[in-house]
């Protein structure tokens, strides 16, 4: 395929321009083959630090490292040619100072070739977002339920249960917007709060468990494909891969035990040259 006929990659300004327009279709991706399958349908693929839980079997995202994110980011970039690819900054790689965040974000972008990074952003993170955005790093904020704060919060809890918490989430979103984020993931809030946040900011909101009041939605791909027995309540399952995979593997195991698989002679149809 010539350089001219390649599909144009979606950029941060393209995503930014979708505020209040056609909803943004976003999913997580962690490897090249799945990224290739998702790419034609998605505006944005996020290499989420959820990779720690859904691929590596960790209990939380806390143990995810920069090297893990870079390895998965490179794989997704090999598979996705059209969607904007954003890579999550894992816990401990951006909170210390804007300079620390910039250095690690620049490394992620240079080594993976991704188009943006995402950070979980309390109001404290506004300076960090501004520092990176002013230095040409496209940043996505993430407010509401912030999985990296689950230990401090006592679990993965929806936000907006008190007036103070409600206001805090709005403040987080407005801070990320004013600091220069080009989109904001809003996780774990009810529809009224999702709408209020979406109206309060100038950039698209991408909801996860945050209702259709947002400017788009992102889901963790293995959740929506039904890879796990348990998924969060807000996730609609579009398939049941756990059941279908078990059924396929059971069939395979039965056939191997019954020696119902082609012999290499059938597959290669080799003719002995010496006889
Ligand atoms: O890590 C992740 O997959 C995320 C999504 C839940 C938005 O941050």
Describe the overall structure.
With 275 residues, the protein is of the alpha/beta class. The protein has 12 helices and 8 strands. The chain has helices at residues 12-16, 32-38, 51-54, 66-79, 98-112, 126-134, 150-153, 163-179, 191-200, 221-224, 241-257, 264-268; strands spanning 24-28, 44-47, 84-88, 116-118, 139-144, 183-187, 205-208, 216-219. Helix 2 (32-38) packs across helix 4 (66-79) and helix 8 packs parallel to helix 9. The radius of gyration is 21 Å and the shape is globular. 41% of the residues are buried. The model has no long low-confidence stretch (mean pLDDT 94). Residues 28, 46, 48-50, 88, 142, 185, 208, 218, 220 line the site of 3-methyl-2-oxobutanoic acid.
Concise structural overview:
With 275 residues, the protein is of the alpha/beta class.
Spell out the helices and strands N to C. Answer: HEHEHHEHEHEHHEHEEHHH
User: Tell me, what's the shape?
Assistant: globular
* Count of discrete alpha- or pi-helical segments spanning 4 or more residues: 12
- In terms of DSSP E residues, the strand content is 5-15%
Small molecules held by this entry: 3-methyl-2-oxobutanoic acid
> Termini, distance in Å?
46 Å
Mean pLDDT: 94
Q: What is the CATH architecture descriptor?
A: Alpha-Beta Barrel
**Unreliable stretches:** none
CA radius of gyration is 21 Å
Strand order of the largest sheet: 1-2-3-4-5-6-7-8
Name of the CATH first level: Alpha Beta
* Number of individual domains: 1
Total beta strands? 8
Query: Portion of residues in helices?
Result: 40-55%
Largest sheet: 8 strands, parallel, barrel
Kindly report the name of the CATH homologous superfamily.
Answer: Phosphoenolpyruvate-binding domains
Structural class: alpha/beta
Topology-level CATH name: TIM Barrel
